[in-house]
Amino acid sequence: MFPLSSSHLQQIFNKLDKNGDGRVSIDELMWLLERTCIDTCRADELELLMGKTSLDFIDFLFFYDMIINVDRNKLEENQDSLIENDLHKAFEVFDSNGDGLISSEELQNALSRFGLWDEHCSSLDCKTIINSYDRNSDGFLDF
C-alpha cells in the first residue's frame, strides 16, 4: 500500500461523507475498510478505538496514517517471516540428517551436489569454513 496525497484523501473523504455533513461515520468508514480488504475490527470496536462515532477530515487523516503504519508494519513482519522461512529451507538443504546442525561432511556433500566442490579440496577446507562461522566452537553450524 502506498501513501496517498492529501488531495486524494480529501476526495475519498468527500465520497464517504454521503450526507455532506463534513464527517465520516463509523459505518461509512467500515464500508471503506471492507471494500479495500483491510482487516479491521467490528464497528463498535472501531468506535471504541477512535473514541468517536464519526471523523472530521483531520481525524480521517490521522486514521489513514494509523492504517498505513499498521499495514506497513504487517508487511515488514511478513517479509521478515518469509526471509527467515527461506533461510530455514536453505539450512535444511545442508543439514542432510535433519539434526539441526551442519557438519563439515554435510557441507562437503551439499557443495558437491551443487558442483561447488572438486577433488582438489580437502575435508579440512570444510572444517575451516565451519570453524569460521561456528560461534559456540562445537564444530557444527546451527541455525
Automatic annotation (TrEMBL):
<dbReference type="Pfam" id="PF13499">
    <property type="entry name" value="EF-hand_7"/>
</dbReference>
<feature type="domain" description="EF-hand">
    <location>
        <begin position="4"/>
        <end position="39"/>
    </location>
</feature>
<dbReference type="InterPro" id="IPR002048">
    <property type="entry name" value="EF_hand_dom"/>
</dbReference>
<dbReference type="GO" id="GO:0046872">
    <property type="term" value="F:metal ion binding"/>
</dbReference>
<keyword id="KW-0677">Repeat</keyword>
<dbReference type="InterPro" id="IPR011992">
    <property type="entry name" value="EF-hand-dom_pair"/>
</dbReference>
<dbReference type="Pfam" id="PF00036">
    <property type="entry name" value="EF-hand_1"/>
</dbReference>
<protein>
    <submittedName>
        <fullName>Calcium-binding protein CML44</fullName>
    </submittedName>
</protein>
<feature type="domain" description="EF-hand">
    <location>
        <begin position="121"/>
        <end position="143"/>
    </location>
</feature>
<dbReference type="InterPro" id="IPR018247">
    <property type="entry name" value="EF_Hand_1_Ca_BS"/>
</dbReference>
<keyword id="KW-0106">Calcium</keyword>
<feature type="domain" description="EF-hand">
    <location>
        <begin position="82"/>
        <end position="117"/>
    </location>
</feature>
<keyword id="KW-0479">Metal-binding</keyword>
<dbReference type="InterPro" id="IPR039647">
    <property type="entry name" value="EF_hand_pair_protein_CML-like"/>
</dbReference>
